[in-house]
Amino acid sequence: GAVVSQHPSWVICKSGTSVKIECRSLDFQATTMFWYRQFPKQSLMLMATSNEGSKATYEQGVEKDKFLINHASLTLSTLTVTSAHPEDSSFYICSARVQGGNSPLHFGNGTRLTVT
Amino acid sequence: DQQVKQNSPSLSVQEGRISILNCDYTNSMFDYFLWYKKYPAEGPTFLISISSIKDKNEDGRFTVFLNKSAKHLSLHIVPSQPGDSAVYFCAASRGNNNDMRFGAGTRLTVKP
Q1: Measured between CB atoms, does B40 come within 8 Å of chain A?
Q2: Degrees (nearest 5) of the Cα angle A54, A3, A22?
Q3: What is the C-alpha to C-alpha distance for residues B78 and A20, in angstroms, rounded to an integer?
Q4: How far is A60 from chain B (nearest CA, A)?
Q5: What is the pLDDT of residues B4-50, one digit of tens each?
Q6: Is the CB of A102 less than 8 angstroms away from the CB of B96?
Q7: Exposed site from A67, A68, B50, B110, fewest CB < 10 Å?
Q8: Do A108 and B43 touch (CB under 8 A)?
């Protein structure tokens, strides 16, 4: 159980375009989902916390107008990278937690974004 | 602000031997600790966790040890297998706080 599906697994786009990444919890409901970014050989950096039905909470240094997050249902959160630039190229991973006390985050398989 | 630290970027062990991965944290409010395993181009997979009320948790070949006074946890894998080769991340969170902090990861290589 507790499967998180992320789509697409990789995407190549041109500078200036926008890219949407979807994160779905397949067998549980997630009022909260998390978006991480990983640079090569570095740790997972939390970008934002996505809350169903309300605005996302962004970590310091993350531009909310550039990384648009929408959590329209209990099983779907989307991250849109707007006006992408080459420095946005990275590995983006979403996660969700089954509610109820301490429980592990379950991660999607990630999306490799390359901006040319 | 690196609240969770994994000071060894890599570790190499022989198949059949024990692998010990270490992790230190600075925030004494953390009370839930986890280890994740990650293969390239995939999301992390949950391995094992421990709450601060325990000092040891075992699941098959994997054992996590927690030393609260030293703010240190470790993951022991025994016996190590080539399929264990991956990057291992430790993580920590506080209460029901959804914010989970990750270490930088340790790349484990198990040689046949």
Answers
A1: no
A2: 50
A3: 42
A4: 11
A5: 999 999 999 999 999 999 999 999 999 999 999 999 888 899 999 99
A6: yes
A7: A68
A8: yes
